[in-house]
Design brief:
The protein has helices spanning 3-6, 22-29, 36-53, 61-75, 79-95, 101-111, 114-129, 136-148, 153-161. With 182 residues, the protein is mainly α.
Length: 182
């Protein structure tokens, strides 16, 4: 294969674009007993939950349990399988952030309805609020996802209102979680 072919400039027939990210493939492989399109949907959904949990560079036990509960309910998974998917989602979204983030949102958008996208926002806020504080980094990450999914701003605000009392930015000390003591 020439460099021009590899770049898609060789003039030959172009191969169809593969829009499935590596992160989605890895998470979906843990759902091998599920119908493939359903596994892909659940993998994108779980990855996005993990992406918000990782926004502050740490995924706490409360966030991981919340991801497992939400994914388990959405996918009708056994608790051990839901835990495994939550763990994979948290690790894949950490390892591949920036690389797969946009691809996964695009995949999720292709697979879902407007109602499912709004339901995702509520779930993203549930994950970010699971440790009793939605820090600014998490709030901003949910907003980025909403923008990428083309969810109207007023819909984002309505979903955010459900966790208003947990928004760290509205509490004394602001929206930044202190780092570990040196």
């Amino acid at each position: 294969m020439s460099i021009l072919d590899w770049l898609g400039l060789g003039g030959g027939a172009a191969a169809p674009a593969d829009t499935e990210s590596e992160a989605v493939r890895r998470i979906a492989s843990a759902l091998a007993t599920m119908e493939p399109s359903r596994a892909r949907y659940l993998a994108t959904f779980a990855y996005l939950l993990g992406r918000v949990a990782n926004a502050d560079h740490t995924v706490g036990d409360d966030e991981r349990r919340t991801i497992a509960r939400i994914v388990g309910g959405e996918g009708q998974l056994a608790p051990d399988q839901a835990d495994m998917v939550a763990e994979l989602a948290a690790s894949e979204s950490f390892l591949r952030r920036g690389t797969d983030d946009f691809l996964v949102v695009q995949e999720f958008a292709e697979l879902t309805t407007d109602e499912q996208r709004v339901a995702l926002l509520r779930c993203l806020f549930a994950v970010s609020a699971s440790d009793q504080a939605v820090v600014t980094a998490e709030d901003n990450e949910v907003r980025r996802i909403a923008v990428q999914l083309k969810v109207p701003h007023e819909t984002f605000i309505a979903a955010r209102a459900a966790v208003r009392e947990k928004l760290a930015v509205l509490r004394p000390g602001g929206g930044i979680r202190p780092g570990p003591a040196s």
